[in-house]
Amino acid sequence: MATVERPTVLVVEDEPAQREVLAYNLEAEGFAVTSAENGEEALLLAEEAVPDIIVLDWMLPSVSGIEVCRRLKSRAETRGVPIIMLSARAEEVDRVRGLETGADDYVVKPYSLVELMARVRAQLRRTRPATVGERLEFQGIVLDSETHKVFRDGEQLKLGPTEFRLLSTFMEKPGRVWSREQLLDRVWGRDIYVDTRTVDVHIGRLRKALCQFGGEDPIRTVRGAGYALG
Questions:
Q1: pTM over 0.85
Q2: Cα angle at 109 between 104 and 115, to 5 degrees?
Q3: Which of 56, 198, 216, 223 measures 20 to 30 Å from 9, CA to CA?
Q4: What is the pLDDT of residues 72-98, one digit of tens each?
């Protein structure tokens, strides 16, 4: 069965017990987790492999969570990654400061793990909807990531696992041009070596699958740049 790659959460927390509890619960919810115990490590990890979402503690040694957030939001590669700030500071002025620095959400300690998981999913629903079971639609194409079914104009399409992941990537951001390298990272994973020409082969298969009952090819080739949906 085709599956959508598990979303990656970067947990940045200097308290080992808190870090372990967060990682354990996120993994139990189906997320892939990477952890950092300080701001420098968090910035390095986010640069090496851009996560889908970051859970970031405000009070970190050396580089504070606020500074980590500011730097990540100033980089083009990580600007769009949602950041949930964790803090014991409950004052409105602190919450406003956290959000103004670029944090997408602000959770006051002590927090409910159930609520935090819900907030993580809410942010991912906005940025990577296919990973949280959302139904995606674009110009008659419907991708149901929960049942792993794809329809076009009411006809169910047969797609291989790789083509399903490619389509879900395209449908999360219609119109965006993806380079072959970006598609390799998102669909195949950073740790797997695959020739960029493999992307072209699977794009060809996806095109064929999308047009198996007729209709125009919805995938656009952008010369020298990559591919886009629509």
A1: no
A2: 60
A3: 198
A4: 999 988 999 999 999 988 788 888 888
